[in-house]
Amino acid sequence: MKHPISYFAFALTILPLALSAADDARAMHERLITLDTHLDTPSSLRRPGWNIMDRHNLKDDFTQVDQPRMVEGGLDGGFWVIYTAQGPRTPAGHAAARDTALQIAVNIHKMLAANPAHFTLATTAADAATIAAAGKRIVYLSIENAYPIGHDLTLVRTFYDLGVRMLSPVHFANNDLADSATDTTGKQWNGLSPLGRDLIVECNRLGIILDASHASDDVFDQMITLSKTPIILSHSGSKAIYDHPRNIDDVRMKKLAAAGGVIQMNSLSAYLIPTPPNPERNKAMQGLMAKYGGRRNLSAEQTKEMAIERRAIEEKYPVPMATFDDFMKHVFHTLKVVGPDHVGFGADWDGGGGVTGMEDVASYHKITASLLAAGYNEADCAKMWSGNTLRLLRAAEAYAATAKVEADAAAVTATKD
Ligand SMILES: [Zn+2]
């Protein structure tokens, strides 16, 4: 029988090793340029009195990203989302959505203007390294749901000029551009609409990365065929691990990788593990939303009151919550299928993401430690944390440059004729 002292001695030997592994992972994480491709944080910017430079708590106001927590979690930046909920597909609905999207873009630019020492707008792939080297946070812009474009494709250029470099055509419901993965009425276009196909051409022409998250599988397939440059899934998961319409099957993952694309792993619990229907909870949550009119214009005090009521509902009608290990299961499976050249992170912070053990962006660095422990090296992590996404942006830029040269040449020929 071994003497207890030998266990003690063993613990003394192994403890520093464990600590130094954690230190190494953290130091490596800090060396990397880290981008999340789906930050719904602009939804916080419209809250009265909410400041990106303050350190907030998830339990007080349900936010997951601010500058102090980005620093804590070692997140250099990402794609800040201009999200518009799907509304009526009418001229008035499209005009209202356009104005909402423009207002969100303005809010992001106001945040940038108010904090020049901490945040910088990025519009090219090369900008990421320059901004990170200056010790600032990187702000790319993206559009989730191109519904605000309505039928006016010239607006794509307007949003490009405002900084948008990634765009997804559709969200929870079908629209005039494409079918959604989650529309309960089923397919309308069997993929992209004719206008949606023109949208792909316009995004390629300008140098905008196409994003198939939320789109139906038909749209995904057609985007890969039609797009001149590799596409992204900015926040998605693995269907083999959990069968949900928002996740992607292994065959399509391989197709995405073969076309040079990337899947960025989502951390939204209901897409990671089964969540049984809970109508009582839904009803109580809807009542809460009705009472507070959404969270859009609430003061900090009202937000706190609402948070207390929301927590009470969550405790009364609990739902299973995915853990960090559940999230990593999706990551490791996807890595097994397509490898580190085609995987990244888009955790859906401030948009429903977050799991037990990685509740907000402050603990984002845990992913790097987990990858290192599983045998992935620094070069792999560098690709996953930004290299792959920036490769797609560089490809989009290169194609747009070629398209511009060809268009200019055609214009010269036309003038001569
Ligand atoms: Zn989303």
Brief write-up:
With 417 residues, this protein is of the alpha/beta class. It has helices at 4-31, 42-45, 58-61, 67-73, 91-114, 127-133, 154-161, 194-206, 217-226, 250-258, 269-272, 279-292, 300-316, 324-338, 366-373, 378-416, and strands at residues 35-39, 77-83, 119-121, 137-144, 164-168, 209-210, 232-238, 247-248, 262-265, 343-345. The chain folds into 2 domains: 29-274 and 320-416, Metal-dependent hydrolases (TIM Barrel, Alpha-Beta Barrel); 276-319.
Furnish the topology, listing elements before pairings.
Elements: H1 4-31, E1 35-39, H2 42-45, H3 58-61, H4 67-73, E2 77-83, H5 91-114, E3 119-121, H6 127-133, E4 137-144, H7 154-161, E5 164-168, H8 194-206, E6 209-210, H9 217-226, E7 232-238, E8 247-248, H10 250-258, E9 262-265, H11 269-272, H12 279-292, H13 300-316, H14 324-338, E10 343-345, H15 366-373, H16 378-416
Helix pairs in contact: 1-15, 12-13
The structure holds zinc ion.
Zinc ion is lined by residues 144, 214, 235, 348, 351.
